[in-house]
Amino acid sequence: MRSSSLPLPLALTARLSPVVVLAVAGWSLSSGPFATAPAAEHKEEQKTGTESASAPSSSVASKTYSAAPSPCGSLAKKTITSLVPGAKTAGKEIPSTDSKLRRTCSWNALKGYDYRWLDVSFEVADSDEKARESYKDNLTEKSGGGDVPGLGDSAYSVVNLTTEDKQQTREGVVVVRASNALVVITYNGSDFESKKAPSTDEINKGAIKAAREAVAALEDGQKS
Q1: What is the spatial order of strands in the sheet that 102-111 belongs to?
Q2: pLDDT 10s digits, 46-66
Q3: Distance of CA 19 to the CA centre of its chain
Q4: Could you tell me the residue range of the domain that residue 71 belongs to?
Q5: Residue 73's domain is classified under what CATH number?
Q6: Does residue 14 sit within a domain?
Q7: What's this model's pTM, rounded to 2 decimal places?
Q8: How many structural domains are present in the chain?
Q9: Rounded to an integer, what distance in angstroms lies between the CA atom of residue 23 and that of residue 41?
Q10: Residue 196 predicted with pLDDT over 90
Q11: For position 62, what pLDDT does the model report?
Q12: Is residue 138 part of a domain?
């Protein structure tokens, strides 16, 4: 007979923060105005300075998204109960150094011997180009997956299996770029009775489903 009192393996018990953390510390909150070009002594220099000041610059490009939406409210309750049976649907938001631009919510639960963990993260950059760079960096770190068509401007999914002390854990990660924002989903699971992990198909489909809802929440949220 199953019992929900079985302790978690040490590796999972010690997991107090989301699996995926994006390297976005360098993203700035705003761009300053153009500096006034110094006066030129020659007409040619004056002409060049005028052209330079009037030229468009990516540093002042408009942003589609100015703030990250609430990650704990980004998924439907039925989706949470389906992907993480036994979890509280309210979720738990992870503290952030800048909650306007970076927000993550986690759900995890052990039901019987089945364990599931789900993270939803939003990252807002100051330009599409910065988001594209971060997106590429994430793909380099998580090679071996494939593109997800019809999701954001670009999306990528990868599923990996790890084994520790004969216990399998399968984890799926979906990274989505939508304009100047990134959405990252991390979804994993283990069965502590059989020592096996959920199938690749189950984890991958679950992560992609969560990603589609999270992107929809981003699009429905505040836009600048």
Answers
A1: 92-94, 102-111, 114-124, 181-191, 167-178, 154-164, 146-147
A2: 444 444 343 444 444 567 999
A3: 11
A4: 64-220
A5: 3.40.1000
A6: no
A7: 0.72
A8: 1
A9: 45
A10: yes
A11: 61
A12: yes
